[in-house]
Amino acid sequence: VCFLNVAFAQTAYKPSAANLENRAWFEASRFGVFIHWGVYSLLGDGEWVMNDQKLSLSEYGLLPKFFNPQDFDAKAWAKLFKDAGAKYITFTTRHHDGFSMWNSQTSDYNIVKSTPFKRDIVKELVEACRAEGVRVMFYYSLLDWKRNDYTPLGRTGNGIAGRDLEQGDWNRYIEFMKTQLTELLTNYGQIDGIWFDGHWDKKDADWQYEEIYSLIHSLQPQCLIGNNHHMAPIEGEDFQMFERDLPGHNTTGFGTAADAVGSLPKEVCGTIAGSWGFNIKDRQQKSFKEVLSYLVKAAGYGSNLLLNVGPMPNGEIQDYQQERLRQLGDWLKQYGESIYGTEGGFVRPTDDYALTKKGNTIYVHLLNADKASFLIPNFTFKVSSLVSFDGKTKVNFHQLDNDVLVLQLPEGLRDTNDLVLKLSIK
Ligand code: JFZ
């Protein structure tokens, strides 16, 4: 037992003070913008197009020659994200296609060396966001559909012709990733998170997380590590994410019983469109009400929302996606105090309501405008007053012995998006 304790003490991850401080910043932020943009955007069929259409390496390899997003304006993007009320962005520095969106020294398959555009998009985006006070995290794919050393192949990418599987070299692949992560965390100033994805492609591989995570934390101690592996957090991670879902719901079926909600800061991610990367057949455009409800429910779970845009090949973000972001920004300008810096998770949100809390104030978000009365179970606080968000209208309530809070809205107090009430507790 003694020996085990010693071994545990040596390997257990102790987040640094800078890291803990950044977790607190992250938790208070509640809203970030996810960006899926790469050479795949050219084909308008989502970011999985290489795998889905079984394009060969040489076929897909034509794309960088055409990637020339003349309308890309990092400053305009950054201003849009700022106006949306986002506190951070998470940008796809390298997706499953293995293409680097920065001037990587360890792979010529990158934006500067392989495209006519020749500009370091990561650099421009980081600088523009920093100037707006929007922090930056990097999405980084663990899985790779291009490199020969990423073998034996994983679950996906097997239909892609042109790889030399004889050249598989797992350790070399891990070293390559470490070199790239070192570039990303050395050349672009403060980066507040690395968002890994693709673990699920090779569930049994030795991803050498201990070394990779400690490399990241040694380069930038505040940098928060998350990993879209749909399992309980691995030692060394700083936040837990839930893809296209709400914490603990596992509606995507990606998760397992181990995908339990832990105690780390939480983030859910989802799209404004149907897909992550630009899709010309974009027929699942979400309404403002839908994206707002997602943000509010996430906050009700004590989780951030990372909401995705999929910019077009010319560098523009589609109008309706921009509009959703601006609508959220306008809403947050008015109701931000009920989202930013709040706690959640004390009452489980439903499609009808979500509750957030700051000190002695609880914000009751009513998401169903067709109802005039609401029953909220498991409400254990003692209410002293309940009013509309602007404080002008009193709302009737009573508390039942079984911890059910009953609300009765006066006529005229309705909001088709989110009726926010302010409740004071004793
Ligand atoms: C991943 C990516 O594959 C996708 O392109 C996008 O970047 C998204 C944010 O993350 O999506 C997943 C994650 C897990 C599985 C499949 C897709 N899975 O477990 O099968």
From TrEMBL:
<dbReference type="InterPro" id="IPR016286">
    <property type="entry name" value="FUC_metazoa-typ"/>
</dbReference>
<dbReference type="InterPro" id="IPR017853">
    <property type="entry name" value="GH"/>
</dbReference>
<keyword id="KW-0732">Signal</keyword>
<dbReference type="Pfam" id="PF01120">
    <property type="entry name" value="Alpha_L_fucos"/>
</dbReference>
<dbReference type="InterPro" id="IPR057739">
    <property type="entry name" value="Glyco_hydro_29_N"/>
</dbReference>
<comment type="function">
    <text>Alpha-L-fucosidase is responsible for hydrolyzing the alpha-1,6-linked fucose joined to the reducing-end N-acetylglucosamine of the carbohydrate moieties of glycoproteins.</text>
</comment>
<keyword id="KW-0326">Glycosidase</keyword>
<feature type="domain" description="Glycoside hydrolase family 29 N-terminal">
    <location>
        <begin position="5"/>
        <end position="337"/>
    </location>
</feature>
<dbReference type="InterPro" id="IPR000933">
    <property type="entry name" value="Glyco_hydro_29"/>
</dbReference>
<keyword id="KW-0378">Hydrolase</keyword>
<comment type="similarity">
    <text>Belongs to the glycosyl hydrolase 29 family.</text>
</comment>
<protein>
    <recommendedName>
        <fullName>alpha-L-fucosidase</fullName>
        <ecNumber>3.2.1.51</ecNumber>
    </recommendedName>
</protein>
